[in-house]
């Protein structure tokens, strides 16, 4: 009788703790971008469609940096990959100072792009790393657990944004942004310095290591090693699903504050406060989803949550006051498990091609660069109606979770 798969092993605990902390940092950065989206509309006089370029700059960096980050990781290892990501993260944050001094939206976008390159590098490294820290049958649980700290970061981000950016008078908004990102850059540099002293396992391909077990499902064994990466159907569909998933996330988050301001009559500060609750729902969804995966297959839970968000988007688009606003908040609950679960299912049984696959799936984040621009064009006329568009994305995710997640063994 096979032994029940453990969540992880004792020897991996310290590494697991440090790597999961990285998930929180990019959660803070991503969610702060959504606060900046609304603030730039007010301070720099850009339209909703133009402010979508904030997300375009961040998520576009994921597309550009995905493959280089994967190649760097493969050549120099996980530790150096993390250090590169943290360095770019800090550099992008410090560039907010000259951007604020010049009051240039274009300069801010350059800073956000460099910061996004750092986030892309961290994500490319962290996902396969966490997946490798134990039995492959529990890799979905580990990635969802680590992503819970990402959700914690997305709660902290809007809270910080509400305090620093929307607190006080509007006239000093860019000065406050400058101060905030100096603090962020300094913290990230200190984290990078501390990471140089952390003992990380010296391996560039942990998925090729075969543990002492007779169950191939416990390993990341490639059942069809003769196949090229693009010939693995479950990987291709995971990359597509991730593209649409982050597209839906980018659009939903980008105009959350606009929805509260225009449809609920909230001030920007109050709407940003509700965004903290919005992000808390993702944290709750991650923990609940990780628990449910002990009893429900990850792909089935993914499909069910995708259906849940189709219903939520339909309600949000009707603009029915608090009913629609609560549905908008609930979108993040159902969204919670999607990114890590798609990532984990897409990396199943790819053997030595796992790291390359991680790079391509990370590139799917470019969906978050494009979709807010499309939603912004609709939101210029009616922000509620813009929430019809993510239904397309959740339909694709449902199809992946219900049908196209399966690993072909031939």
UniProtKB/TrEMBL annotation:
Query: Chief subcellular site?
Result: membrane
Please give the Gene3D superfamilies that the UniProt record associates with this protein.
Answer: MFS general substrate transporter like domains
Q: Where is the Major facilitator superfamily (MFS) profile domain?
A: 13-409
Q: Record's CDD domains?
A: MFS_FucP_like
Transmembrane intervals: 12-33, 53-73, 80-100, 106-129, 149-167, 179-198, 235-257, 269-289, 301-319, 325-347, 359-380, 386-405
Coiled coil regions in record: none
Q: Name where it's found.
A: Cell inner membrane
Q: Keywords assigned by UniProt?
A: Cell membrane, Membrane, Transmembrane, Transmembrane helix
> Which Pfam family, giving just one, matches this sequence?
MFS_1
Q: Name one GO cellular component term.
A: plasma membrane
Would you say which domain of life the source belongs to? Bacteria
The protein's GO terms of the molecular function aspect are: transmembrane transporter activity
**What is the membrane topology here?**
Multi-pass membrane protein
Show the PROSITE patterns listed in the entry.
MFS (PS50850)
Q: What is this protein called?
A: MFS transporter
């Amino acid at each position: 009788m096979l032994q029940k798969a453990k969540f992880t092993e004792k020897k991996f605990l310290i590494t697991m703790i440090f790597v999961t902390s990285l998930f929180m940092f990019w959660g803070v950065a991503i969610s702060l971008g959504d606060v900046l989206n609304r603030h730039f509309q007010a301070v720099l006089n850009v339209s909703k469609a133009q402010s979508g370029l904030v997300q375009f700059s961040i998520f576009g960096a994921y597309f550009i940096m995905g493959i280089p980050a994967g190649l760097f990781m493969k050549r120099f290892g996980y530790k150096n990959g993390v250090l590169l990501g943290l360095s770019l993260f800090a550099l992008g944050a410090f560039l907010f100072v000259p951007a604020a001094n010049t009051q240039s939206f274009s300069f801010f976008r350059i800073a956000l792009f460099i910061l996004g390159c750092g986030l892309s590098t961290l994500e490319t490294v962290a996902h396969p790393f966490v997946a490798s820290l134990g039995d492959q049958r529990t890799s979905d649980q580990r990635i969802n657990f680590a992503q819970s700290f990402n959700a914690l970061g997305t709660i902290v981000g809007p809270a910080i944004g509400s305090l620093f950016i929307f607190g006080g008078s509007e006239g000093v908004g860019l000065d406050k942004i400058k101060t905030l990102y100096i603090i962020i850059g300094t913290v990230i540099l200190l984290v990078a310095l501390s990471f140089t002293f952390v003992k990380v396992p010296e391996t560039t391909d942990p998925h090729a290591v075969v543990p002492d077990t007779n169950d191939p499902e416990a390993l990341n064994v490639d059942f069809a090693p003769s196949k090229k990466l693009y010939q693995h159907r479950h990987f291709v569909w995971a990359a597509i699903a991730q593209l649409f998933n982050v597209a839906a996330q980018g659009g939903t988050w980008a105009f959350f504050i606009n929805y509260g301001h225009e449809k609920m009559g909230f001030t920007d500060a109050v709407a940003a406060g509700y965004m903290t609750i919005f992000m808390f729902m993702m944290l709750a969804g991650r923990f609940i989803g990780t628990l449910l995966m002990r009893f429900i297959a990850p792909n089935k839970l993914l499909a069910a949550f995708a259906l849940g968000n189709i219903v939520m988007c339909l309600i949000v688009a009707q603009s029915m006051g608090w009913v629609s606003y609560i549905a908008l908040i609930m979108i993040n609950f159902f969204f919670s498990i999607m990114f890590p679960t798609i990532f984990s299912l897409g990396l199943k049984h790819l053997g030595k091609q796992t790291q390359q696959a991680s790079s391509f799936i990370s590139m799917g984040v470019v969906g978050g660069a494009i979709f807010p621009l499309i939603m912004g064009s609709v939101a210029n006329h009616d922000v509620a109606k813009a929430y019809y568009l993510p239904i397309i994305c959740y339909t694709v995710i449902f199809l992946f979770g219900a049908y196209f997640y399966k690993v072909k063994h031939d």
